[in-house]
Amino acid sequence: MKSVFLFPGQGAQKNGMLKDVCEKYPEAMALVKKAEEISGEKISDFMWNCEESELARSDRSQLAITTASLAIAKVMETKGIVPEMCAGFSLGEFAALCTAGVLTFEETIKLVKERGIIMQKACDKLAQASGGDDAKPGMAAVLGLTPDQVKEAVKPLSEKGIAFAANMNSPKQTVISGTFEGIKEAEALCTAAGCRRFIKLKVAGPFHSPLMQEAGEEFEKVLETMNFKNPTKRLFSNVAGKEITQGEEAKKLAVKHFTNPVLWTSEEKEIAQIIDSANPDCKNNWAIYETGPGAVLSGLWRDSTYAENISCTAVNTAETLDSIN
Fold it and tell me: What pLDDT, on a 0 to 100 scale, did the predictor assign at position 267?
């Protein structure tokens, strides 16, 4: 049986995540300790002792989610499950880069720490420009409209530079990024267009939109001296919406993450590329795992046409890990 690992992005964090895994599997706790040594941050406190609002900050959640995802992947490895292919949703792409050998674990933790700090600084700046803590920018999931319908609904706001279609999650779900006012206006426009639900997400800012341009430029400087190696496993990018084979390409896309949409399911269809690569006999020979906290990606998978042929299993607790042979 061959495996695909899908790593979740920001918003998957939850207080208490990975605690039961660390209690049951010493290798998971050892990885958390190693990440804490590299980063100089008490990541276990972020995961287990932070209020939800504090954990949602980019300078906490990004380190916590990446560490948790790689800890679960480590436990999977001890069970003899090593992926043939991997992909990450937004932030999750850094766990995928590490798993695919593009970055070492140490490089990954250091970069994710810097990324989180830069993004949180940009979010704080946008909030202050809009009126302070009560006017924070953010993201919201639109359910019940196609990506094209969402793009059309928020087009006037995109032209004003205050809200954008950012994550093409599934045929039934698209995420919008925007300023505080932009998200508020987007809710009215999407409701008028017939959306079923409009859900504000637990993230700190308007990611994957032009509002993060300045932060992207700052992160590009951080990457200047970094060597992104060519992947040793098949690696798929949600910025390009396809497989990437060169480390330099992955490096450029890491910067584009800040401002470009996530093409999880869209015209380019990252997930479709993975499924096409796994065929023929995908159902019988392949297992797909959401490897990290939460179950967002397995939920999006159920919304796709691919769920008819193969399921995606969320592996996020000691119980789910125990169930894997």
Answer: 45
How far apart CA 180 and CA 302 sit, in angstroms, is: 31
CA 118 to chain centre: 17
Sheet holding 138-143, edge to edge: 163-170, 173-178, 138-143, 197-200
37-40 contact pairs (CB < 8 A, 24+): 38/105, 38/106, 38/109, 38/110, 39/63, 39/109, 39/110, 39/113
Give pLDDT, residue 268.
43
Quote the radius of gyration of the chain (alpha carbons, Å). Answer: 19
The pLDDT of residue 34 is: 98
Q: Whole-angstrom Cα distance, residue 131 to residue 319?
A: 45
Strand 242-244 to 286-291 pairing: unpaired
State whether residue 85 is helix, strand or coil. Answer: strand
Residue 270 and residue 248 in contact, taking contact as beta carbons nearer than 8 Å:
no
Task: Give the active site residues.
Answer: 90, 208
Query: Phi and psi of 5, rounded to 5°?
Result: -105, 130
**What was the pLDDT predicted at 128?**
83
Facing residues of 286 across strands? 2
Q: pLDDT value at position 305? A: 67
Q: Is the dihedral of CA 152, 256, 100, 249 positive or negative?
A: positive
> What's the whole-model pTM score?
0.92
Tokens of 62: 């990004």
Read off the DSSP letter of residue 229. P
CB-count burial class (<10 Å; 0-12, 13-18, 19+) for 257: buried
Q: Which pLDDT score is estimated for 183?
A: 95
The 3-state secondary structure of 277-305, one letter per residue: HHCCCHHHHEEEEEECCCCHHHHHHHHCH
Q: CB count, 10 Å around CB of 259?
A: 21
- Averaged over successive runs of 10 residues, the pLDDT of the chain (325 residues) comes to 91 94 97 98 96 91 97 96 93 97 98 96 85 80 94 96 92 92 96 96 89 96 95 91 93 95 68 64 75 91 72 93 87
- Which residue type is seen at 1? M
